[in-house]
# Entry
Amino acid sequence: MALEHFTGTTFLTRVLFYVSAIIVGVDFFATLFTILYQKYIYKRFLRPRYGNYTPACSVLLPCKGIPKDLENNLGGFLKLDYPDYEVVFVTESETDPAVPYIKKVIEGYKNAKHVVAGHAVSCAQKNHNILAAYKQMSPSAEVLVFADSDIKPARHWLRELILPLGDPKVTVTSGFRWLHSSRGNVGEMTHSYVNIFMYVLFNFACYFGGVGLWGGSMAIRKKDFEELSVPERWGRAAVDDISLSQIVLKKRKKAVVVPQCVTHSDDLIQTVKGTVAWFQRQMMYFKYYLRPLWIVAFPLEIMMLVYLLLLPGAGALSISDRWTFLGLGGGAALMFYIGELMTILLYPMLGAMPKFHKFVFYSPFIRLTHVISYFMTFLKSTITWSGIKYHITFRGDVTKVERLNG
# Structure
């Protein structure tokens, strides 16, 4: 079959076909690049440049509630292969359910402490907690490390995360989280997909644009943290990592994703509704703190929606004698579906993918939830996170903190 026939006979169907080819080509290349970066580029070319950099550091660890395996996760931060570090655990209140676990874990460790931050009034509670821990950390620390309590770091995690900061050109480093489904339900698969999407996006954007950070594993020199006025920004912002990405991008600093600091977890959101809400919140952060990327995503999301609906639509209408499948743009839809399937088949090379056959089966629906999450950001001007609603200005400053549970 000639390419001209496959693309359809009208100008519109040909445009749809070639735009589809561009979208899936970029997606495939970004995923392939992430695989190469993770397995080859960083290990072979980047890491050897950093030498051996192990300054004194403080790990600032905000905790809230009881995520899966909390005690093991917290204990992992006190068993790291690093010569000189402390861990500052911080909670919003003394009555937080995580507090008994923290007190049990830090018992007998001189390099660990617990800080109570109090309620945030002008920023995200997580930001407020981190800043409270920052004020109580050891004055000898040269590097600040930020982490989440729902991961258990490997013994080398801290050493690898800090290592690139030995290069003065590197301002901040980041790890990431890899989610693998244990139950194989559609909720877990949807959460796994959006996590992979973010991971590929951050690796690609970080390498080529210098920005892409995940708050669950970040490190920055204390000097840079203060000179870039991060405490002041975090004291008004609704998020930690994306607002720091905004600063790094504006100041034209350099960030590095460290593949060795990708932590693995099977603690996934169990419902599609929960995943849509989670991903919508991530897109809201882009809306307020990385707005150019959020705007650029608009035509891409429109086209994705078109292609997702075009295949079944063209197939149904082509039953009539009036239209043909390819004449309705079915070739463009096939290009999108086949190209995205080829990209998805690369995912197991990024990390463990149990029940991968289910992931492939659910993928068209999963892509649709991705689009829905993005378009829902046009309908909202607030961000709800862990039972707290944040009212935000156009510039990303928090004007009101509303606690939904009273």
The chain has a mean pLDDT of 93. The CA atoms of residues 284 and 377 lie 6 Å apart.
